[in-house]
Amino acid sequence: MSHEHRRPAQDRTSAPTQSPDAARLPLLSDCGNCFGLCCVALPFARSADFALDKEAGRPCPNLQADFRCGVHQELRQRGFSGCTVFECFGAGQKISQVTFQGQDWRTAPETARPMFDAFAVMRQLHELLWYLTEAVALPAARPLRDELRAALEKTERLTLGTAEELAGLDVPAHRGEVNTLLLRVGELVRAKVPGRKKDRRGADLMGARLTGADLKGANLRGAYLIAADLRGADLRSADMIGADLRDADLRGADLTGSIFLTQAQVNAARGDAATRLPRGLRRPAHW
Ligand code: SF4
Fold first, then answer.
1. Which helix (H) or strand (E) holds 268?
2. Ligand 1 centroid vs 128 CA: distance in angstroms?
3. Nearest CA to ligand 1 atom 7
4. Do residue 201 and residue 180 come from a single domain?
5. Which of 92, 95, 157, 173 could form a disulfide with 88 if both were Cys (CB 3.0 to 4.6 A apart)?
6. What residues pair up with 19 in beta bridges, in sequence order?
7. Same domain, 225 and 158
8. How does residue 99 score in pLDDT terms, banded at 50, 70 and 90?
């Protein structure tokens, strides 16, 4: 949504020789190849993150005719910090260039509704691809590699469906299958970390003082870490899937080797030049 990242669209349907990072590149937003879908399809409520109310399906007034953001350089100053946090996992360019083959909703208004509906589904599928692509490459997950590859291929196949097929998918069911697998991956990764590992799955750690905490190999799945003070914390090899990191202070924290962290989680947190991120994630411009 920030329209900050403009890379050429890439086809990732089969790339067995790619490094894990290269394999995940198409799973990051490429706004230059998207028809501004997040700026139209999603609703906003006026808040600290968005300066205005906008209903789903109505273009943001800042979206230009060429699908670029007219206030991109000053999103935060203008009250649109939510736009700098959002990450579509590459769903926007996939819907725009693959599902709808370059036909946009402005010149073909009849495509708008099916395009926006399909975008919501594609984003969820691409999020699963993000996790699965990471999991397949993890040495600790070797015992599950065949199952992970099968789940990755199935998810890839689903993303290549028509807009109608996408809208008709039972995403929660597929997500449930994948999540069971990812849970097992997390256990395998954390088992490699020596010593006692903290289990904070789904824990309420909002505003917690965790400065310098030893959270190496911790289970932080779905933990509420909103505004937690994690300065200098050791989060290496921690399972971060679904952890809510909004306004969490990650300055100086070490997230090397943590698993299932997404760009959106990183964007929502605070950090600095000393924060160590896992490979494949970008240091946000606002840090
Ligand atoms: S301000 Fe509007 S056009 Fe700009 S990134 Fe946010 S939603 Fe998109």
1. helix 263-268
2. 25
3. 39
4. no
5. 92
6. none
7. no
8. very high
